[in-house]
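For consistency, the fold was encoded as C-alpha cells, as this record shows:
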Amino acid sequence: MVDVELLEDTAAFSRLEPVWNTLVESSSSGRCHSTYEWLFTWWKHFGGRNRLLLLVAAEHGTPVALAPLYIAHDTNVLHFLGQGLSDYADLIVPCGRQDITDQLVTAILSHRDMWSGLDLEEIPEDSPNARTLDRLREGRTGAAWQNTVRCPYLPIAGTWDAFYETLGKGFRHEVRNKLNRWNAMHRGEAADSALQYLDVRGVESGLFDEMVALSAERQRADGHRSPLLNHPDQEFLREVLPLMGTHGQLRVGELRGEGELLAFMLAFYWQGVASTWNTQYKPLYASYSPGRLMLVRFAEQRFSEGCRELDFMRGEEQYKFEWTSHFRMNLALRSEPVAAGANLATGEC
C-alpha cells in the first residue's frame, strides 16, 4: 500500500537526505537537477516566504517517490523546486510505477485549496510522468502545455577518434589552426604560457572566484549573461558546487595559458550523463577560439571516461548543433494567466 505525506518545513525536507538520491537513481526521469544537493540547497537560498509542498509517497513506511514542489508566496502559483536555475524538473518516481505517479498527482489535486495556478517548467517531453501530470488541468486550473526550449544532446558510442572525424574537415582544421597559432606565438616562452587543459571534479573557492571574474570580463565585453554574476544565484552556486563536487556530481574543464584561466566548462554528472551548464572564455583571446578548444578537450575526456551521453541542456545556441542533431523538447504546464506573462526564453545560462 502506498501512502502520500505532505511535508511543509525545511527540517522535514532535510531528513530525506539519506534516501533522496537513491530515489532519483531509480526514477524514470532522474537527472542532475533532481538531486538532493541541488534542490535542498536551492530551497535554502530561495525558499524565503514561499510555501514548501513536498509530497512523499511511501510503501510500508519506506519513501519510494517524491513530488518536489513549492507555492510562490506572491502569486500562489505551484512550481517545481529549483525552477529558474534547473534545466530539467519532474516527479521522482520509480520506473514502471505509474500507480505511484497517479497517487502523487491525486495528492497534488487534493491540496487544490493551497494553490491557485500552475507553472511547472522544464519537464522533458519524454517523461513517462507527463501524461499523468496532464490530470492537473482538471479542477478549473486553466492550464495548458507549452513547448519551452530544445535541449541538444550527443549520445556517446564508439571511440573519440571515430566521432571526431564526423565533425568534418573544416571543424578539425580550425581547431588545429588555432592551436598552431597559439604555439607559434608563444614558442620559446615559459612553460606556463603553453595551453593546458585540466579536467577536474570539483569547484573550490579559488576556482569559483576565477570563474566569476572571467564571467564578469565576458559580460563587460559583449553583455553575455551568467548566473555566476547574479545575486542571489551566485551565493547559491558558491555553496552548491563544492557540495556537488564532494558527491561526484561535477565535471569541470579548465583551459589555461599564460598563467591564467582562458575558458571553462562547468558541467554536472549523473549516472553516466555529463550535462554542460555554463561556459565562458576570455574575450581578449577570442581569436584563438578558447571556448571551442576547451569543449573539444572536455568532450574527449567524456568519451575516455565512458559516459553514455553529453547533454548540452536547455538552450539553442548554434555551436551545440555543430556537435549533434539530437535534441529533446522541454515542456511547461502553465495556467492561462501565468502563461500570458511568461517569458519563454531560450534558457541560455
Remarks:
- Residues 205-222 form the longest helix (18 residues).
- Confidence is low (pLDDT under 50) at residues 343-349.
- The chain has two domains: 2-150+329-341, 157-307.
